[in-house]
Design goal:
Strand content of chain A: 25-35%
CATH architecture of the largest domain in chain A: 3-Layer(aba) Sandwich
CATH superfamily of the largest domain in chain A: NAD(P)-binding Rossmann-like Domain
Shape of chain A: elongated
Largest interface: A-B, 72 and 72 residues
Largest sheet of chain A: 11 strands, mixed
Number of domains of chain A: 3
Radius of gyration of chain A: 24 Å
Oligomer: homodimer
Structural class of chain A: alpha/beta
Helix content of chain A: 25-40%
Chain lengths: 434, 434
C-alpha cells in the first residue's frame, strides 16, 4: 500500500505532540496501520519550539493544506468553531478525510459536518475530542456495540477534577486552587469553560449521542459548575462515605434522555470516586456487559496526540471499505438515529446532599425533617456538629432519599423560610452509580 | 447491504447469552452494524434451558455449521483446544470468518490459526477471549495504536480476585473461600486453571503479543498461583499501604519481554489495587498516552456475549475492506512481528515483601538486614509485632528495595539458614505500577 499523506493544521500543544509521536513511534504506527504515514504539509501561523519543523513543508495559510491535492487526511488542531470549521468544510469538499481534537466544533456543529462528510464519502474522526488519550469513543461506538447503554457518567474535565482533589486533600478553597491551576497552565485565563462545566458539556453531548444513537443536542444540556462547592462540603461528603466529583451524566429513561453536568456525591467505594487530580474516567453501564470504566489522562500534548494518531490509523484502515461498511460517525447509521426528548432538569430524580446553617435550639432538626417528609422526601443520614464556642449557629447536613428536582427545590424553599434556618440551603446531587 | 448470517456453535453459558443479547438488542446492533445479523444455524450437542431455540435451525453436528454455505461467520463457543480448533480450521478452510471466546485455543494455537486465516483472507476475532466484556483487545490494538507500550498489568482472572478479596475483607483462608467460589459456580471443580494462574497466563500472552507486536509464546510465561497466600499477608500488606492482587504482567525492557503471572503487592492508591470481587481490570502504560485503565466484568454469560457480538459487528464492517487495510490479528502486520526474547524470571527485577517467623531475641532483625545488605538489597519498611503471650516467636515482615529475583532468592536462602529464623521465608513481589 502506498504511503498515506497527512496535512496537519495547528502547531500548538497537541499539534507539536502529534508530530513528535508520529516521528518517534513511526515503526510501531506503520506496522499497525499497514502502511507508512507521512507528514506531507503543516499549516501553522507560527512555529513552536516544542517541535522542530525546519525540514517540513510548512505553510502559513492553513487552507492551503485543505486544498493540497497530495494530502489524503487533514488533521485539524486549530481549535474554536470558526476558522477550524471552515477548514474542515474545505477539506471535506476537497474529498479529504478529517481527524480532529475539537470538541466544541463536534458538539455544536457535528450534525451538519457529519452529513457533509457522508455526502462526500469521507470520514471525520474525533477520538481526541473526548477524554484525551482514553479510547472512549471507540469503546462506546465499537467495543460496546452489543449493548443498550443505560447510562454513563464521566469525570471529563481534568482541571475541575484537579481543583476538587486539591480542595479535598488540603482543605483549600476554590479560588485559591483555581489560581494555582492557572499558574500551572491547567486552567485558561478565563476558566469559565472548565469550572462552569461547558467543556464537560461539549464532551458529554458527544458521548451521549454515540451511546444512545441520537443527533447532537448541545443546547439542551443542564450545566452547573463547581465554583460554589466549599471545602467543608468535601469534608462532610467524606464523613458520609462519599466523594464529590464534577460529573457529566447521560441516562436513558422512559421520559427520554437526561443530559447533565453538575457536582455529584458518589459512594467512595466506586472506582470512579477515587479518580483524582487531572485524570479523567468514564463509567458506562450497558445492559449486557454491566458496568465498565475507562480511565486515563484527559488532556496534554502526547495523550491527546495518542488519540489523534489512533484515529489516523483507523481512517487509513477504512480507505477501501464500502460506504455501507464504514463506522457511522455517531455509531448508529445516520438514518437510524432517534431524536429522543431531553428530560427537563425539574423532572430528573436523584438523591441530595443538603447543607444549611441552623440555630442551635431544640426542634430545629425536627422542623427541617417535617418539611421534607411533607414533600415525600425521607432522610438517609444526618450530620449535626456542636456549635463552636461563642457561636449559636450550627451546620446541619442531610442526605435525602431520591426525589424529583422540582420536589426538592420546593422543599428547600420551605426550609429557607423557617425561622431557625439562616441564609440559603446548599444542595448537591447524589448518585449511587450502582 | 444484505443480512449477515451467523452460525453459532456451543450452547453453554456464553452461547445462550449471545443468542439472548442478539435477540434483545437487535435494533441497536443492526443500526451499529449497518445491516441485520441473522442466526442462520446453531450447532450444539444439547439444548440449554437458558435460551429457547425451538424456532432455530439447530444441528447436533457442529461441523455442519462450518460447512453450511449460507453461513458467513462461525461463532465458536465450544471451548477447549481439540474439537474447537478443528471447527475453527474447517470454518477457515470454507472461507468463513470466525468469532471466538476461546483464550486457550488462541494462546496456544493462535499463530498457526491466524496464518491459516490470513491465507484464506478471513478474520478470527477474539475480543471475548480476554477480560470478558472489557474491550481491551480493541483498546490495545486500535485505541493505543500510536504508542510504544511499555508495560501492562492486569487482574484477568475473576475467580482469583474474588478469593483474594474475600480473604482480605473477612480474614478467611484460601481453602475456605475457594470452596465457596466453587459452590457459587465461579470456580471449576478443578480450580487449578484459575488459582494457579494458567487461565491468566492464557490471557496475558494474548495481551502481550498485541502490546509489543510479537508472536504468541504461551510456553514461556512464568506462573505462580495464589494458594500459598495467607490471610495475614493480606493484613500486613494493608498495614504497609498495599493490596495483594494476582496480576498478569508484561513489560518490555532492554533484555526482552517479561511475561509473568504472580501475586503482587500494589500501592493502595492505585486504582487497580481497589478492583475487588470478580471484576477484571487492565492497566496499560503507553509512551505517549501514559497510564490508561480498563475495568469491567471479566466473565459471565452476557458480559462475554457483549464482546462476542462486538466482534461480529467488527467483522461485518471489515467485509469489503481490502486485505491490506484489515486490522492484523495481533495488531502489527504479520511480517512486522518481532520474536523478542523472554526474560528469565531470575533476571527480573522487582521489590519484595518478605514474611518470616523469627525468635524474639535481640539482634535477630540485625542478622536479617545484614544478609540483605550484603546482597545489595536495602529495606524500605519493617513490621515486627510483639510476641503473643506464651510465644517466643514473632512474625517479621520486610519490604525490600528492587532487586533481581536471583539475588533475592540467594538472600532468602541465607536468611533461612540463620539460627534465629524458623522455617521458610514467604516472598511476594511488589510493583509500584507508577
Amino acid at each position: 500500500m502506498k504511503p498515506v499523506k497527512v496535512g496537519l493544521c495547528g502547531l500548538g500543544t497537541v499539534g507539536s505532540g502529534t508530530i513528535n509521536v508520529l516521528r518517534r513511534n513511526m515503526r510501531e504506527i506503520s506496522a499497525r496501520a499497514g502502511t507508512e504515514i507521512i507528514i506531507e504539509q503543516i499549516g501553522a501561523r507560527r512555529d513552536n519550539s516544542a517541535c522542530d519543523t525546519s525540514s517540513e513543508n510548512v505553510v502559513r495559510d492553513i487552507f492551503e493544506v485543505a486544498r493540497n491535492p497530495d494530502v489524503d487526511i487533514v488533521i485539524e488542531l486549530i481549535g474554536g468553531t470558526t476558522v477550524a470549521k471552515e477548514l474542515v468544510e474545505l477539506a471535506i469538499d476537497n474529498g479529504k478525510h478529517v481527524v480532529t481534537a475539537n470538541k466544541a466544533m463536534i458538539a455544536e456543529f457535528g450534525n451538519e459536518l457529519f452529513a457533509r462528510a457522508e455526502a462526500k464519502g469521507v470520514t471525520i474522526a474525533y477520538e481526541a475530542a473526548v477524554a484525551g488519550g482514553i479510547p472512549i469513543i471507540k469503546a462506546l461506538r465499537e467495543g460496546l456495540a452489543a449493548n443498550k447503554i443505560e447510562w454513563l457518567a464521566g469525570i471529563i474535565n481534568g482541571t475541575g477534577n484537579f481543583i476538587l482533589t486539591e480542595m479535598k486533600d488540603k482543605g483549600r478553597d476554590f479560588a485559591d486552587v483555581l489560581k494555582e491551576a492557572q499558574d500551572l497552565g491547567y486552567a485558561e485565563a478565563d476558566p469559565t469553560f472548565d469550572v462552569e462545566g461547558i467543556d464537560a458539556a461539549h464532551k458529554l453531548v458527544i458521548l451521549a449521542s454515540i451511546a444512545f444513537g441520537m443527533p447532537l443536542q448541545f443546547d439542551k444540556i443542564f450545566t452547573e459548575g463547581i465554583s460554589t462547592i466549599e471545602p467543608q462540603d468535601l469534608t462532610y461528603a467524606q464523613e458520609l462515605g462519599y466523594r464529590i466529583k464534577h460529573l457529566g451524566i447521560a441516562r436513558q429513561s422512559d421520559q427520554g434522555v437526561e443530559l447533565r453536568v453538575h457536582p455529584t456525591l458518589i459512594p467512595e467505594k466506586r472506582l470512579i470516586a477515587n479518580v483524582d487530580g487531572v485524570m479523567n474516567a468514564v463509567l458506562v453501564k450497558g445492559d449486557a456487559v454491566g458496568p465498565t470504566l475507562y480511565y486515563g489522562p484527559g488532556a496534554g500534548a502526547e495523550p491527546t496526540a495518542s488519540a489523534v494518531v489512533a484515529d489516523l490509523v483507523d481512517v487509513v484502515r477504512s480507505f477501501t471499505a464500502a460506504q455501507e461498511n464504514k463506522i457511522a460517525h455517531l455509531g448508529f447509521a445516520s438514518d437510524a438515529l432517534t431524536e429522543f426528548p431531553i428530560v427537563p432538569m425539574s423532572d430528573v430524580e436523584t438523591a441530595y446532599y443538603l447543607r444549611m446553617t441552623a440555630e442551635d435550639r431544640p426542634g430545629t432538626l425536627n422542623q427541617v425533617t417535617k418539611v421534607l417528609s411533607d414533600t415525600g422526601i425521607s432522610i438517609e443520614a444526618v450530620i449535626q456538629k456542636e456549635p463552636t464556642s461563642g457561636e449559636s449557629a450550627v451546620s446541619l447536613i442531610l442526605l435525602t432519599s431520591r426525589a424529583l428536582e422540582k420536589q426538592l427545590l420546593a422543599a428547600i424553599e420551605s426550609i429557607e423560610a423557617l425561622d431557625e434556618i439562616e441564609g440559603q440551603v446548599a444542595h448537591i446531587r447524589v448518585e449511587s452509580l450502582g
